[in-house]
Specification:
The protein is mainly alpha-helical. Helix content is about 80%, strand content about 0%. The longest helix is centred in the N-terminal third of the chain and has 29 residues.
């Protein structure tokens, strides 16, 4: 079978310009990029425990409240590729800043909303803002870090995103308990405003490698051309499929873990929240150390171990019976393995086509959210039919393992990287 090549190396061309000072300056702001990722994760996670109170306020059936999450994820998946192409054409800074402003607007409008239709619409606005922010953040990190050290850098951003499962949901619940659900959205809008001001003050004006491209067919023609170029690259398709499966392998079981714990062990919301915090902490640690391991031993090698542990962990959660402690250990190991794998996949996709890196990373985000949507839909249908939990976890495990043959078709071009980079492609 033909092997798709992935171009790597330390000398990447991004929208930061050619000056080493600009690259060094941008590289110092990875904490701000991780903060942006945390806010995106926080916004997505905090809605879940707030749905009952939001439903009462909007006078709707709580079972319909999940559509607020669906609308957010759907707009992210649909809009991210367009905004990724925009960042390749106009530069990361302008798209990131616009995304932060849109994100603030969406959350303020959510905080003042009173009808379900209005809340759905403004959650879509927040999702579109997130679709601008995350591809730009990943592209910035990739532009300023060579492939050999990119796993560590992306791992910090992924850890920021995953930390929302540890801090976001409990913080939102506690704040809503003290005041009301609207306060949580005002809080995240205020925090995002701080990040926006920081970005305006500290990020340099950056030139895109595609900025001088002639726009004979109009702006939309340029975007569509960039998207076509990305999806016609075999390596892009392989890794996007891997990301979709990796996401499906996580969310098919994770979104229903509260129901599983309640049925198996009689957990209440507080018990489940503590379990999720433990798994989230494992995911954070996995992302931080997984990125370092990926840089040291190779993205694909680390991904093999992560997939095996993730598959074994999610299966063990349902196979260990009524023993609470071993199930919780398996749950945490599963979350840790997912955290290890995420920076590996994102690092790989960041080097598929460096000249349109924003587009590739945006497509990767769409694949991730599409996998989440697909998995939750299928899992809900299966659970409605009273299918065994073992079937659900087995399907998730199969998705995780299916990532491996896809990644075998992607390798770093040995002619384009240093000897260190060649070692990392193994």
């Amino acid at each position: 079978m033909q092997v798709a090549h992935l171009r790597g190396g330390r000398d990447v061309v991004g929208d930061w310009g050619e000056g080493s000072d600009a690259v060094a300056h941008a590289a110092t702001h990875i904490s701000g990029e991780a903060a942006s990722a945390f806010l995106i994760g926080f916004d997505a996670m905090m809605v879940v425990p707030l749905i009952p109170e939001i439903a009462r306020s909007a006078e709707l059936d709580p079972r319909s409240g999940g559509l607020l999450v669906t609308m957010y994820a759907l707009l992210f998946a649909v809009s991210a590729p367009l905004f990724g192409a925009m960042s390749d054409r106009w530069g990361r800074r302008i798209v990131l800043v616009s995304g932060l402003a849109t994100f603030i607007l969406g959350n303020i409008l959510t905080a003042v909303g009173s009808t379900f239709a209005f809340l759905l619409a403004v959650r879509a606005v927040s999702g579109a803002g997130a679709g601008m922010i995350m591809p730009s953040v990943y592209a910035m990190v990739s532009d300023t870090h060579g492939f050999q050290e990119r796993g560590r850098a992306i791992g910090k951003v992924v850890a920021g995103l995953l930390s929302a499962s540890v801090l976001g949901a409990p913080l939102a619940s506690y704040l809503a308990h003290l005041t009301n659900w609207r306060a949580a959205f005002f809080l995240i809008a205020s925090a995002t405003a701080v990040v926006l001001l920081s970005a305006l003050a500290m990020l340099p004006v950056m030139a895109s490698p595609l900025r001088e491209q002639r726009v004979a067919t109009g702006v939309m023609g340029v975007y569509l051309g960039v998207l076509r170029g990305a999806v016609r690259t075999p390596a892009v398709l392989f890794v996007l499929a891997a990301t979709l499966l990796w996401s499906a392998g996580l969310y098919g079981m994770f979104t229903n873990i509260g129901v599983f714990f309640a049925e198996r062990f009689g957990f209440d919301e507080a018990d489940t929240g503590l379990a999720i915090m433990g798994s989230g902490a494992g995911s954070m640690a996995g992302a931080l150390f997984g990125g370092r391991l990926a840089d040291r031993f190779g993205k694909r090698r680390v991904m093999v171990v992560a997939a095996l542990v993730a598959a074994g962990g999610v299966l063990s959660v349902t196979l260990l019976g009524d023993r609470v402690a071993p199930v919780l250990v398996a749950y945490i190991l599963w979350g840790t393995a997912v955290g290890v794998g995420q920076p590996c996949l994102t690092s790989l996709v960041s080097e598929l086509q460096p000249e349109i890196r924003g587009t590739a990373l945006a497509l990767n985000g769409s694949a991730q959210y599409s996998g989440m949507t697909l998995a939750t839909t299928v899992a809900a249908a299966l659970l409605t039919e009273r299918v065994s939990w073992i079937v659900i976890s087995g399907t998730c495990a199969a998705c995780a393992l299916s990532v491996l043959p896809l990644l075998r078709q992607v390798r770093v071009d040995a002619a384009s990287v240093s000897p260190v980079g060649q070692a990392m492609s193994r």
